[in-house]
Write a structure and sequence with these properties.
Helices cover 41% and strands 17% of the residues. The protein has 432 residues and is α/β, with parallel strands linked by helices. Strand 1 and strand 2 form a beta hairpin. Helix 3 runs antiparallel to helix 11, helix 4 packs parallel to helix 11 and helix 5 runs parallel beside helix 6. The protein binds 4'-deoxy-4'-aminopyridoxal-5'-phosphate. GO terms for molecular function: cysteine desulfurase activity; pyridoxal phosphate binding. It comes from Colwellia psychrerythraea (Vibrio psychroerythus).
Length: 432
């Protein structure tokens, strides 16, 4: 059975439905919103919004603490969500699923609770040049704290982590290898299986940043055999402020708590000190984001069937959108893609000869089109590519071919209306 149908999928997103439907303007059909910033955050289906509201209206109570029925109900829903995440990524145990604020916090926990306590001066950390700042800055801080050194894996012209180079980067001194499954700018599925295998061969710990992968790929952490996998709910149709740190149990057991307070303790005494709770609670100090955890479970229930569907209709439709958008952009003379070839997911980044990224994004915004311009939290990648920023179109399966055509038509119109000559550019530089 084909469970994915583009218009039925789209209909489930109220913000898209209410703002994205066509308006008649000057006799032409114009959408009031074309949302192409899905790599930053996705819109939420009605059932996820309803679920969060339902929790506050019907179940709201603190979890794990009270013996009353409401708390039991909240705890049940909260822990059921953890089991759902376990199944979603194929983890061995629920104890390996830690709730965090998002991918950023997950990486910071690994860095401060594990890397900080194990790295020695001269030890090496390998990162890819295309990492998001969330997977760079925590490592820079720990390198400063411990005397460890960061080594950078380059990318190919096609935007993939350059697997040919890893033998030069990952070696006996490497203790941690952290890289994105998919970069938020390049949109390529990195060969992380090979990176993990190489890291294992030298005894390094592997961290995969799955932030951009979870809405598009089926993840199985056991077959990947990575030590850690991190992601945020809001990039997979779930709420903001909630994410996951998956870690192999043996490693999580060894790690010290990240934050301290209620929930993460077993016993507290002024004379005997404190003993910590078992996994996963050891890493979950304080009252968690209960409503978002429960709504996150709803987003997993929403997304999972599309990803698991044997006909791959969801994935094929996403691919169709990517191909269409990429090809249409490729036909515009001024477009320079930041990497060669079509991306693997709907993340398409480019610059425009003779035009400023920000001006273009602002002009598109006046046409109701939301795209992103800037460094996309990947400044080292921009430096590597010798650009100071780029435009990024990021697509979801609720987008349409018609929206892409509208975007391309608007972009062409703007390019005609706002020719920005090289001499203007030179004059501006001189003024600065
Ligand atoms: N890594 C990647 C590849 C991302 O795209 C993002 C979000 N843009 C993050 C990490 C950080 O995610 P969050 O802000 O949800 O913690």
């Amino acid at each position: 059975m084909n469970i994915f149908t583009p218009h039925l999928f789209r209909q489930q997103f109220p913000l898209i439905e209410s703002h994205g439907n066509s308006l008649i303007e000057k006799g032409a059909l114009v959408p009031s919103l074309v949302y192409f910033d899905n790599a930053a955050t996705t819109q939420k289906p009605q059932r996820v919004i309803d679920c969060q509201q339902h929790y506050y209206q019907n179940i709201n109570a603190n979890v794990h603490r009270a013996s009353h029925q409401l708390s039991t109900k909240a705890t049940f829903a909260f822990e059921k969500a953890r089991s759902l995440v376990q199944g979603f990524i194929g983890a061995k145990s629920v104890k390996e699923i830690i709730w965090t604020k998002g991918a950023t916090e997950s990486i910071n926990i690994i860095v401060q609770s594990l890397a900080r306590n194990t790295l020695l001066p001269g030890d090496e950390i390998a990162l890819c040049v295309s990492e998001h700042h969330a997977n760079i800055v925590p490592w820079q801080i720990v390198a400063e704290q411990t005397g460890a050194v960061i080594k950078v894996i380059p990318i190919t012209d096609h935007g993939y982590l350059d697997i040919e180079q890893i033998d030069n980067i990952i070696g006996e001194k490497t203790k941690f290898v952290a890289c994105a499954h998919i970069s938020n700018v390049l949109g390529r599925i990195n060969p992380i299986e090979q990176v993990i295998a190489k890291a294992k061969a030298v005894g390094a710990i592997t961290i995969v940043d799955g932030s951009q992968a979870v809405a598009h790929l089926t993840i199985d952490v056991q077959s990947l055999d990575c030590d850690f996998y991190v992601f945020s709910a809001h990039k997979m149709y779930g709420p903001t402020g909630i994410g996951v740190l998956y870690g192999k149990r043996a490693l999580l057991e060894k790690m010290s708590p990240y934050q301290a307070g209620g929930e993460m303790i077993k016993t507290v005494s002024f004379t005997q000190g404190t003993t910590f709770n078992s996994l996963p609670f050891k890493f979950e100090a304080g009252t968690p984001n209960i409503a978002s955890v429960i709504a996150f479970a709803e987003s997993i229930s929403f997304l999972s069937p599309y990803l698991a569907d044997a006909s791959h209709a969801y994935k094929f439709f996403e691919q169709k959108l990517v191909q269409h958008c990429y090809q249409a952009l490729a036909n515009i003379e001024q477009v320079n893609f930041i990497a060669k070839g079509t991306p693997d997911i709907g993340v398409i980044a480019f610059t425009l000869t003779g035009h400023h990224n920000h001006d273009i994004a602002m002009s598109l915004d006046t046409e109701g089109i939301a795209i992103r311009s800037g460094h996309h939290c990947a400044m080292p990648l921009m430096t590597h590519l010798h650009i100071d920023g780029c435009l990024r179109v990021s697509l979801s399966a609720y987008n349409t071919i018609a929206e892409i055509d509208y975007f391309i038509a608007c972009l062409k119109k703007i390019l005609l209306e706002e020719p920005f000559s090289q001499s203007d550019e030179q004059a501006m530089k001189e003024e600065l």
